[in-house]
Amino acid sequence: MKFISYFVRESSRRIPLILHRIQNPVHTIHTHRSAAATMDTTVHSAGISEVHHVPMSVIKRPIPSILDEQKVISLMDTINGEASEEEVPPIDLLWITGSEGGQYYFSFGGCHRFEAYRRLQRETIKAKLVRSTLGDLYHYMGSSAPKYLA
Ligand SMILES: Nc1ncnc2c1ncn2[C@@H]1O[C@H](COP(=O)(O)OP(=O)(O)OP(=O)(O)O)[C@@H](O)[C@H]1O
């Protein structure tokens, strides 16, 4: 019994240490899957387990959000709580490589979570990166999709 509890404790310590650097400016991947991250996936990110800490400054949100103020405030409280932040799942980002090699991160959903992280002046937000193409962006933006990526 003592051995089992030692093993469980040691394993759970190791999980958050699985950190890698993949590319700038998205520095880290972790494969730790919280209950929220596991259960609260979208159709786009259902097969993606890696969660990245993506700098807020690199995320493009071309469509303005319509926000429920109470929900933003409630999310800010949850995110600020040391124990409760895990209850907020990662947002999805469309990750597009431009024709000249630049990396672009577009966000369409996750409006309330993004706004809560923004108001809290967090430098990064938890996100799943959904590999996407300019064609995918056209689905969201039609002809307003940025031409500089093509
Ligand atoms: N205090 C809270 N208020 C609202 N959602 C919370 C809160 N704490 C944790 N959550 C979780 O955060 C997620 C919020 O996702 P939700 O789809 O409701 O909003 P959003 O994606 O940020 O905004 P939108 O759907 O408008 O784009 C849910 O998975 C919810 O369970």
From TrEMBL:
It is an enzyme of class 1 (oxidoreductase). GO terms for molecular function: ATP binding; sulfiredoxin activity. GO terms for biological process: cellular response to oxidative stress. It catalyses: S-hydroxy-S-oxy-L-cysteinyl-[peroxiredoxin] + [protein]-dithiol + ATP = S-hydroxy-L-cysteinyl-[peroxiredoxin] + [protein]-disulfide + ADP + phosphate. InterPro entries: ParB/Sulfiredoxin_sf (IPR036086), ParB_N (IPR003115), Sulfiredoxin (IPR016692). GO terms for cellular component: cytoplasm. Residues 50-144 form the ParB-like N-terminal domain. Pfam families: ParB_N (PF02195). Its EC number is 1.8.98.2. It comes from the Eukaryota. Keywords: Antioxidant, ATP-binding, Disulfide bond, Methylation, Nucleotide-binding, Oxidoreductase. Belongs to the sulfiredoxin family. PANTHER family: PTHR21348, SULFIREDOXIN-1. This is sulfiredoxin. The lineage of its organism: Eukaryota, Metazoa, Ecdysozoa, Arthropoda, Hexapoda. The gene is Dper\GL14755.
